[in-house]
Design brief:
136 residues; rod-shaped; mainly alpha
């Protein structure tokens, strides 16, 4: 059983790189960019789906607020003998806090994730600089 690692090849000087090898490296680099963009796209799609779910739930609760406010008008006057405005204000306040919490939690972006597609932007900039350096 051989346990030695083969020696690394010496680095190739810039002038001796054949054009085909350079083009091949650029194509490999571009393939990496597309893979990174796909990965970030999947992350962003999941983030948008989570946020849209929270907005849909918030819209549903908003409709529920409207319906319950109408019921509160009647029950506030008949059963609780509260003024109409007080019964509506209490119920509206409770539901608005629930909506605010739902949208607030879903709307937060994880700070460590950076801006959307930040990895692709950074990698593209480095690759562009590398390509210009190679062809200049």
């Amino acid at each position: 059983m051989i346990t030695e690692t083969p020696p690394e090849a010496p680095p190739v000087p810039r002038q001796s790189l054949p054009r085909a090898s350079l083009v091949s490296r650029i194509l490999t680099l571009l393939k990496g960019h597309f893979e990174l963009a796909k990965l970030e796209g999947r992350y962003e799609a999941a983030y948008v789906a989570k946020r849209m779910t929270a907005y849909a739930l918030s819209a549903f609760l908003g409709l529920t607020v409207f319906i319950l406010l109408q019921i509160a008008f009647i029950h506030g006057l008949m059963a609780l003998k509260l003024p109409l405005g007080m019964a509506c204000l209490v119920l509206a306040t409770i539901y608005m806090v629930v909506i605010w919490v739902l949208v607030g939690r879903a709307g937060e972006r994880i700070a460590s994730a950076g801006r959307p597609f930040q990895g692709s932007r950074d990698e593209w900039r480095r690759s562009k600089d590398w390509i210009f350096k190679r062809f200049s």
